[in-house]
Amino acid sequence: MAMLPETSRRRLLLGAGALGASALATGCVANDPPQERSAAPVAAGGDNAEPGKHVRIGFSAPAADHGWLAAMTTNARAQAEKLPDVTFRPTEGSTDVNRQIAQVETLINEKVDVLVVLPADGKALTGVAREAMRAGIPVVNVDRVFDSPEAYRLWIGGDNYGMGVNAADYIAEQLRGRNVDDPVIAEVAGTDSLPLTQERSAGFREGLAKHGLRVSRRVAAEFTAETGEQEMTNLLQAASRLDAVWNHDDDQGIGVLAAVEAAGRDEFFLVGGAGSRQVMDRIKAGDSVVRATVLYSPSMCSSAISLARLLGQGRGMSDLAEHEVPRSVTTYSAVVTGENVDRYLDIGFAS
Description:
The chain is of the alpha/beta class and 351 residues long. It has 11 helices and 12 strands. It has 2 domains: 55-158 and 299-315, Response regulator (Rossmann fold, 3-Layer(aba) Sandwich); 160-295 and 337-347, Rossmann fold (3-Layer(aba) Sandwich), CATH 3.40.50.
């Protein structure tokens, strides 16, 4: 579109303004009632619960060698089974990136209607996801984002930065309530080389800074229970006093809590991450240092299947006015505490 010269553009704006003022004055003199504006339609997607065109959904995720990952696949399958107009075509999970690429290629060749992919490595799977999109198969990218937006129609995942911020806000509130001066705050991170860990740590660090607080001690536990126990043991030996701990991941938290109990330490409170059922049960029981967990729920994979169905049927979301499914959905990292834990027990996953 060609740009108007500045003087012409100014005349156009002034002319439009004069026309608007004239119309407004005419309306006021005539005492005409204001014209009713047509409201945007709601429920443009129709009733999403109503069965629609049958959709064949291909699904690919890494091997379930972690409680959270296992729950992602379990949730996807369970959601598909609830939908009478969906056929679920999963592949066998693998930690081998090349094998996952080959499995996605198989689903493309089978001409599934929609693909739901949780990539073991977003960058490595970008090429095959773009291949699917070029073949006319919409791709729902779950959590670990592909390198190119051309590789997916929809991304759905968690808010890693927000997870850290919400953990920081909760810890700051609890410390204020306990009148703790100059608190010693520890962080048990996941795998430092992963962007998600970096984002969680950045959110936690910057969230604490808002309250005039900082991370005093930090270790990385690689998202495993074994390393969690080892790193927490080292942390406890190095710190004679702790006031609060944020552990990024409830799966590695199994080891973290084992180390805490073995050391007999209970002068601090601990906030978990992700939302395992075991941690929620500990929160509800109130019999340990665990006081909360910040959600990064695998229920996002259930939602991914439901959204893939709507994409395959050419429908929007019934609660939105838009006729299309959104481009991206970011889940919220709610803080689960003793006060609200019953509300979230249904999405707690097995570590």
